[in-house]
Design a protein that fits this description.
- The chain is of the alpha/beta class.
- It is built from twelve helices and ten strands.
- α2 links the parallel β4 and β5.
- The longest helix is centred in the middle third of the chain and has 20 residues.
- The chain starts with a helix and ends with a helix.
Length: 349
């Protein structure tokens, strides 16, 4: 299917991690309204990166989607699409085993280190295509907030700034944090008289689920993901808005993943929740950093925001908490979210 699509819409395929790559001329292309797709081919995976927006200054924001197993274009929504793309180009990247990426690699090859190398391969492809003077920013949401540090710890010199949006930099600690924050939030909402029966169920689950196991972790994660809907119903946070604009026929299929979260299953089997934490290495990340979080996030609890900010090694860092949001402020406070992105990028480009 993907090869047919390549032939239909003229996707440019570039081979990443090859020395001596020559940048393609862009003199005849309108970089103020860039709209194209490239593939990164790296270590037995072909991963699409769809690029939209204003690249006149060769400023690119690479978005690392959540999941695991999400898709890049789910972030081409609301003011990222209408405002951020006016300011700079945005790169919507489908990670290995996610979205509409494909490949013939084995489970044995997969690791967060390999996926970080994929991101660096993407950075090299962008610079090969648009010029070595291209300016790259990296943004990771949720799971992307783990993949981002993994990438930067390999080579942060490729990027001018790091934007951590509700990022899971410490998977090891998530289970205990669920057991802590879910009952706290439940008690708070019960005291306010909000959805009492629902919150009693959440509190009972979180306090009785028992010691860590992958199954128990998935149960609490599922419960945490459902919280935002109830909070919005009770007017504690804003309703999520998802304005994707007018998709072309070629874009619509790529808003959903056809990989069935292949990569998530592999990483879970390989001990993602038991083995991955970057907390003690965040101090090695010294590029300008912006930490963005929702007050009511329990998927990656807000205590992670302060932990990320405190541990990042940058002398130029900022933290901002969205008061009417949970795990996805780009959906619940989109105007303010875009303002924060644009301000950070324009300050450091």
């Amino acid at each position: 299917m993907i090869y047919k699509t390549k032939n239909t819409i003229g996707i440019l395929t570039l081979i990443a991690m090859v020395s001596g790559m020559v940048s393609c001329s862009k003199e005849s292309e309108d970089l103020t309204a860039l709209r194209e797709t490239i593939f990164v081919r790296h270590k037995n995976a072909d991963m699409p990166a769809r690029i939209f927006g204003n690249a006149s200054e060769k400023v690119f924001l690479i978005i690392l989607h959540g999941g695991t197993g999400g898709t890049g274009l789910e972030y081409r929504v609301n003011t990222i699409r209408t405002e951020v793309e006016k300011n700079n180009a945005v790169v919507y990247f489908d990670q290995r085993g996610s979205g509409s990426s494909q490949g013939s690699y084995s489970e044995k090859e997969v690791s967060i280190d390999l996926m970080a190398e994929d991101v660096l391969a993407l950075a090299k492809v962008i610079k090969a295509k648009y010029g070595e003077d291209s300016k790259l920013f990296l943004m990771g949401h949720s799971w992307g907030g783990a993949l981002g540090p993994a990438t930067l710890l390999k080579d942060q010199n490729e990027f001018l700034g790091w934007i951590d949006v509700n990022g899971a930099h410490d998977f090891i600690g998530l289970y205990e944090s669920y057991q802590l924050v879910l009952p706290q939030l439940a008690d708070e909402q019960i005291a306010l008289g909000n959805s009492i029966e629902y919150w009693e169920g959440i509190r009972n689950l979180a306090t009785s689920v028992g010691p860590y196991s992958l199954q128990n972790s998935l149960r609490l994660n599922s419960a945490a993901n459902g919280v935002a809907r109830v909070l919005a119903t009770d007017n504690v946070i804003n309703d999520a808005v998802a304005d994707f604009g007018n998709d072309t026929p070629s874009e619509k299929p790529f808003r959903v993943t056809w990989n069935m979260n292949q990569i998530g299953g592999i990483l879970d089997k390989k001990g993602l929740n038991e083995n991955v934490s970057f907390t003690n290495r965040l101090s090695e990340i010294s590029i300008p950093s912006l930490v963005l979080w929702g007050t009511y996030d329990v998927v990656v609890p807000t205590l992670y925001a302060q932990e990320a900010f405190d541990n990042l090694g940058s002398d130029d860092k900022e933290i901002f908490i969205f008061e009417r949001s949970a795990h996805s402020p780009m959906y619940t406070e989109p105007d303010l979210f875009a303002d924060k992105l644009i301000e950070f990028i324009n300050t450091h480009k």
